[in-house]
Amino acid sequence: MELVALLSSKDKESWPQVAGLIKHGEWEKIFIVGDDEAKSFSSDKKFEFIKVNFDQRIKDLRDDLIKKLKGKFDELEVGLSIASGSGKEHMALISALINIPIGIRFAALTKEGIVDL
User: Which CATH number is associated with domain 2-116?
Assistant: First the structure.
């Protein structure tokens, strides 16, 4: 499965959750969605960084995400981490994925390991 993870620079305390999810998962591809500041995120695993401007209006953000994510996926659904970010950012990303269209499974790292929610 491929992973799409949102990284908000306004919510850096959630970055370890995303880092752990990446580290402990067996992902075919990893896409990190974030702004300029999120470019500083690092991981031992290779990922593609998708740069967006979270200050856009929600519809414009959704449309930008569709344009940047469309055609990136090899599978019919992706694991999705929205542990980081705001409601506006979550809504834009979820809406973009649904409109591509691609199925989503929410993924989270817990004490028991990675779980689909």
Answer: 3.40.50
